[in-house]
Amino acid sequence: MGLTLYYAPGACSFVPHVALEEAGAAFDAVRLNLADGDQRKPDYLALNPKGRVPTLVVDGRPLTEVIAIVTYLDRRFRTAGILPGHDPLLAARAYEAMTWLATTVHVAFAQITRPERYADDLAMRGALAAPGRDRFVRALDGLEALAAAKDAWLVGETFTAVDAYALVVRRWAERIGVDLSAYPAWNAKGDRALARPSVVRVLVQESGLDPAVAA
Ligand SMILES: N[C@@H](CCC(=O)N[C@@H](CS)C(=O)NCC(=O)O)C(=O)O
């Protein structure tokens, strides 16, 4: 079954991208430039009318939303450990974390970077950034608490999609100048995640560098 991931550098599409690499899956990756508005071009809207990344095309049929794509990949590549599979409570904890990241943390960040989603009025858009930043930064305490638990990774003893998702948030935090040293447990787990071969491969691909040059 053919797989094509539409992604953008620095975006939440990083999560399924890492999952595909963790699984050792054969897939094509199509890069979108969000700043140029590739996500709103007719060809892409025909695939994903929401005009967002990620989209995973599975045998010609598009699947959207990070959590849905990760769930699909986890079930398709059973042994890859994309989500914790052996323990129902751990699996639920992974969904608990991913749902919070998608619906609370991501939404707060978008209030800063995509105010047009929340208001038509230009003055209102300007007023959204400061409370968005506050909400986003408050949410980082939640990631620190998750990371400070005794598990080796954010959820359980193995690297999962939740760790990849937290790396997306880390990149966003860096983008808005958050001092990561205030989150020592999350920072340490994030550093370890950054060293994973799957993560390195995706970062190199997102950077647009030739892997041979980037290595
Ligand atoms: N709920 C969606 C959110 C997708 C989303 O907002 N993607 C952002 C990048 S992280 C995007 O495509 N932004 C482009 C835009 O808003 O124009 C998911 O979890 O997949």
SSE order and pairing:
Blueprint (H helix, E strand, L loop, with lengths): L2 E5 L6 H10 L4 E4 L10 H6 L7 E4 L2 E4 L1 H11 L11 H26 L8 H27 L12 H15 L8 H11 L2 H11 L3 H4 L1
Parallel strand pairs: 1-2
Antiparallel strand pairs: 1-3, 3-4
The site of glutathione (GSH) has 12 residues, from loops.
Write a brief structural summary.
By secondary structure, the chain is α+β, with helices and mostly antiparallel strands. Helix content is about 55%, strand content about 10%.
The description of the largest β-sheet is: 4 strands, mixed
**What is the class of the largest domain in the CATH system?**
Mainly Alpha
Query: How many domains?
Result: 2
Mean pLDDT: 94
β-strand amount? 5-15%
Q: Indicate the CATH topology of the largest domain.
A: Glutathione S-transferase Yfyf (Class Pi), Chain A, domain 2
Gross CATH architecture of the largest domain: Up-down Bundle
- Report low-confidence residues grouped into runs of 5 or more: none
Structural class: alpha+beta
Q: How far is the first residue's CA from the last residue's CA?
A: 31 Å
Molecules bound to protein: glutathione
Number of helical regions: 9
- Order of strands in the sheet with the most strands? 2-1-3-4
In which range does the helix fraction lie? 55-70%
The arrangement of helices and strands along the chain is: EHEHEEHHHHHHH
- What is the rounded Rg? 17 Å
The number of E-state strands comes to: 4
Q: Identify the overall geometry.
A: globular
